[in-house]
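Predict the holo structure. Ligand: HC1.
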Amino acid sequence: KVNLRIDNIAVSVEEGTTILEAARKVNIRIPTLCHHEDLCVAGNCRVCMVEQKGSDRLLPSCAMPVSEGMEIQTNSLKVRSARKQIIELLVSEHRADCTRCYKNGKCELQELASEYIIGENGFIDLVPLKVLTIDNFSPSIIKDDSKCIRCQRCVRTCDQLQNIGALTVAYKGKDMKISSFYEKPMYEVVCTNCGQCVNRCPTGALTEKTYLEQVWSAINHEKKHVVVQTAPAVRIALGEALGMPAGEIVTGKMVSALRRLGFDSVLDTDFTADLTIIEEGNELLQRLKKVLVDGDKSVKIPMTTSCSPGWVKFIEHTFPEYLDNVSTAKSPQQMFGSLAKTYYAKKIEVEADDIVSVSVMPCTAKKYEADRPEMRSSGYKDVDFVLTTRELALMIKQAGIDFASLPEDEYDSFMGESSGAAVIFGATGGVMEAALRTAYEVVTGREVPFDDLNITPVRGMEEIKEAAVKIENPLPEWSFLDGVELKTCVAHGLSNAKKVMEAVKEGKVDYHFIEIMACPGGCLGGGGQPIPTSPAIREKRSQAIYREDSMKPIRKSHENPEVLQIYEEFLKKPLGEKSHELLHTHYTE
Ligand code: HC1
């Protein structure tokens, strides 16, 4: 242990801890604009400067490890004056039209400028406004260079966390800017739309593209019937954006709020998450049969999940030769969209033309997914508008709803019922666990051999997880699987996805089924989730997801009564004709 004093408070921390981390241990907040718990140390913004007794120099607390006997002051006159000047300089380079900015009230620079009372200052006249671009061509993300303070959180996110490198540093010195390959718009480069950069940007330089006004118009349109679906990971995070602590399950209040906002049908993506499990689980078993019994070389194993659009875009760019390994099952969002304008429209006797399909997602890539040309199997754009968790919170605020005091409501029926297996889609490993709960039972007629259906080896935040389930005494139809060890792998975050795919490519692993989610922690850590999203917050959201699963009366997708009913009334059978028409696709880019 290393002992030091920070603002005269004794602190004892592990060797290698930075001054910033040590201060946080004793609840002293040192401001910073470039540091983020998910990212490596950068020391770019210098806002976190502190003073060390006996030294003339100020130290960047995010980059400086503690040493024995250190005496640190985080708020001396020298520190305050340096910090204020740095903030003034940053503000002077930033297009500070705060009242018109999407991040107004949620901008870390604005908050510091307010704390340090940055009013009129000399720098504003000294630094000429540069000509900077606003890229709003992507369906998911807006990049506004005039708001950028060059902290490089986005660059580190894209490079280290996601291993994509769509964002990079261009030029040097005063000309330095955050750019893309040949300064092309984001939609033309390898950006996966995951929005992890958006979630970490301290200012309004990277934001989601918002569709709030379009959704309000649809709600207020007399003729339109607006259907809303909510993703699994929204219900355990929305509360954070409305003043509640992380880890609160707000499913019932969210449903209540959506009704008050004026949505005509309040339905659940979890319903189609259950449907995905039936379709994807059957697809996996069919693939195994074709490979193991028929020796069909055209059929690819391992099969990978397809529900994370950031992952699909990643594999298209990085491992296109493995596109046939991706499950043909559409994501739950898109299955929902195509059913909303076909089966559901008919059921409620509304013309498909008059249905407006809105989804609330923890994800910015879902906006891109809904725009893909493959996602029009209803004859219309299957999902018209995708809102992030943050955008829904804004709608609730705009409508003057006191979220905390709302009563708990139930989803509408039909397409509002779901199992615990669907809820856990929102956490890394959840799709795998849900699939195994169903696939094992389909093959053997027995429940998966894990205590209380909890397949713990695929849970948790470990970067890459492996689990094997041995199939014993299968039903006659599946006798070819007797004794087969079903090998699975789960990865979250695209840098881990890359590691897994490289191992597959090099023949180092022989998995049957791989779950990949583009975002750290899975959807609960999505780019559209409330800010901040930190490792501790992801952990709390994850615990909430598994709590919600454990409280559900039905915990297996194949036991969802509405799923059984839709097969009986409409789809007829998994992988059948209707399913192929509406629920499956093939990515060819
Ligand atoms: Fe997800 Fe999914 S789990 S991809 O993370 O398969 O976004 O929550 O909605 O579609 O169900 C996201 C979450 C989400 C889909 C489902």
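The mean pLDDT is 96. Residues 269-292 form the longest helix (24 residues).
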